[in-house]
Amino acid sequence: MSGTHQRPTVVIDIEKGFFELSGSSIPENPMEIFTPIFDHLNKYLDDPQPLTELNFRLDYFNTSTSKLMLDMIHKMEILTERDGHEVNIRWFYRENDDDMMEIGEDFANLCRLPIEIIPYN
Question: Which is it for the CA torsion 38, 43, 46, 52, positive or negative?
Answer without folding.
Answer: negative
